[in-house]
Amino acid sequence: MATTSLADSDPFVDPVNTASDRVYTEAWTLPVGKTFAMRTSQDERRAIAVAFYLPVRCFDAKSPPQIEADPFPEAKTTQAIPFFNILWAELSDFDITVQYAKLTAKNVVRVASVNYLVEKPQRSYARSWVAKLLDRAYGESQRKKRIKVLINPFGGSGSAQKWYLRDIEPIFAAARCEIDVERTLYQGHAVEIAEKLDIEAYDVIASCSGDGLPHEVFNGLGKKPDATKALSKVAVVQLPCGTGNAMSWNLNGTGSTSMAALCVVKGIRTPLDLTSITQGDRRTLSFLSQSLGIVAEVDLGTEHLRWMGSARFTYGFLVRVLRKTVYPCDLWVKIDIPTKGAIREHYRNELTNHALVEERRDSDDGESPGLPELQYGSITSSLPSTFTSIPSSKVGNFYAGNMALMAPGANFFPATLPSDGHLDLITVGGDISRHSAIQCFLAVEKGGFFDLPQVNYRKISGYRIIPREQKGGYISIDGERVPFEGFQAEVHRGLGTVLSKTGHLYEADGVVPKSG
Ligand SMILES: Nc1ncnc2c1ncn2[C@@H]1O[C@H](COP(=O)(O)OP(=O)(O)OP(=O)(O)O)[C@@H](O)[C@H]1O
């Protein structure tokens, strides 16, 4: 963690505006070489690092500005590097080197560097210039993260290892991260690795995989005797090497491996709600979603149609809609926010909630060092009195989400927030007209799904669901198939930890504009 005034102050206030910085920034140009200078923007915008630029004046007019919004338009030879992209800077005996992630193609960044001689009289000033640059480049994000990297050798159709070496490792290395790489050897291996992990030795567990490995990592940390501490200490992140990569899309806004690596380097620790699922005598943690009905069936029940690519989802959906399939069940829910209007208001309030990390978690009483006790009991306990019965004899889709995007472009849960202590629950009747069902399907990608009258949307913190009148079927927890039998869910506010760009929001369109 940076030890400067920046780390101590409100991260959303530009440190340039603080009194102690003002003197410094007036002299915020570092002469390098004979005829040019490096200087930072005094553009006083909000402190999330993406907004700032380190312009490097250079002789080479052939080197074009890297971004369109050049904050120094008057200087045609200026090369502007976003602060967010600065990986490291250091002063050696004679020169100063700045390494950064350079955009080399749409959605691809590669490590590049600029290097200049520093004259002897400038050295002491250059030293503080480098320190200041790193403060601005990292903000409240931890530097030199210690990362346990897990690679699913089958991820990305067998390309995960290659993508790691080409796209990810050089960025971590340039950012001076400590890296320890391990390949997963069998299903469930990531659970074991996380369970045995020395949590004092790592800050992050990064999975080069789809969403399956992060699910295993949360559950491995959850098996530790000091699970609550482990889940709050070690951040779980994804380097997208699967097909859906929901975790990376929600937290980094990208499915690109190299850009996700940069986001991990610059990521801000963010508490994440986790949900305990009890089924039979098992308790597992879910970080992404639970579904029963058309989404689960289309996801898990069309494996034999993989040859169709993503068209299998459209095909599977249309077949079930045309048949007006219903999935009868008994459903009881702990409803926290019942209406779309109130949900919108809740979301609007959260946009400006910059509470500290530890204030975004349920308090840890220290008495149960393992997973938190279940306040609603398990699926085998008597039904909690705070649960309300919801008629569900004709449900077509039961879908509970903890993140907004379930895949790129599939913003099912636009009102989700990482640590508001709620799951978002969607229920849609299976007996609605075919036209209404297709309207739902199209609205997920085009936007407007949340507002459709046939979509019931609630914020909840627990539920019990028991399928009935069905011989078999599909239940999906974070995209993994579990037995087709009743289960109970309970949300734990901020139990897990991830890295995100903002520290409190997902990178998806919400239910009110984020600027408003
Ligand atoms: N070496 C291995 N052999 C077999 N299975 C493995 C191995 N390593 C990991 N797995 C399993 O692969 C599964 C899929 O993991 P991953 O996170 O890559 O994907 P996914 O979410 O299923 O992927 P996709 O997004 O492509 O559908 C997990 O259940 C994991 O346990």
TrEMBL record:
Which InterPro entries does the record cross-reference, listed alphabetically? ATP-NAD_kinase_N (IPR017438), Diacylglycerol_kinase_cat_dom (IPR001206), DUF7493 (IPR055916), Lipid_Phosphate_FormReg (IPR050187), NAD/diacylglycerol_kinase_sf (IPR016064)
What UniProt keywords apply to this chain's record, in alphabetical order? Answer: Kinase, Transferase
Q: Which Gene3D superfamilies match?
A: 2.60.200.40, Probable inorganic polyphosphate/atp-NAD kinase, domain 1
Gene Ontology cellular component annotations, sorted alphabetically: cytoplasm; membrane
A GO MF label: phosphotransferase activity, alcohol group as acceptor
Under SMART domains, the record lists: DAGKc
Entry keyword annotation includes Nucleotide-binding: no
A single GO BP: sphingosine biosynthetic process
Keyword Kinase among record annotations: yes
Which intervals hold domain DAGKc?
Answer: 142-281
Q: Which PANTHER family match?
A: ACYLGLYCEROL KINASE, MITOCHONDRIAL, SPHINGOSINE KINASE
Q: What is this protein called?
A: Sphinganine kinase lcb4
